[in-house]
Amino acid sequence: MRRANRHHRKENLHNVDLQIMSSVTLEYDDRHRRRIRMIDDMGENFLLDLAHAAYLQDGDLLEFAEGQAILVKAAKEEVLEVTCEDLVQLVRVAWHVGNRHTPVEVLDQGKLRLRYDHVLHHMIEGLGASCEKIIAPFSPEPGAYSGGGHDHAH
What we know:
The chain is mainly beta. It folds into 2 domains: 2-74, Sandwich (HSP40/DNAj peptide-binding domain), CATH 2.60.260; 76-137, Alpha-Beta Plaits, CATH 3.30.70. The chain contains 2 helices and 10 strands. A 6-stranded mixed beta sheet has the order 2-6-5-1-4-3, with no helix packed on it. It is elongated, with a radius of gyration of 17 Å. Mean pLDDT is 90; it is low at 146-154.
């Protein structure tokens, strides 16, 4: 079985010279991994075998020993796209979403994207923002300290 043992983040690919052989499309919950058997988008098995758990972002590469790679893609899933009228509303909505430790993707034009949740939908509309439930890829911010999540007690 092929074994991917190196992870290259999309923002660090400028010095990486790999032949992309396939892709693997994963939902958000399936993109924080260290070691697991996976199936690429062409139906071929491979083993993800990283030294440490990593958050796999859309556009990252998983490297095989032979100099080949698989491109990571974010799967389409049920998300809530939030549109704010101005910067103050955007900051207010982002604060409330972040206060609930909810993963969020920051988009252009004052928009946010988060996984669909009817309670958050109601809360965000209560703050005056517009919400639309859509099916789209979800690539939230990876986290300021560890590439995803944090460690502190509440």
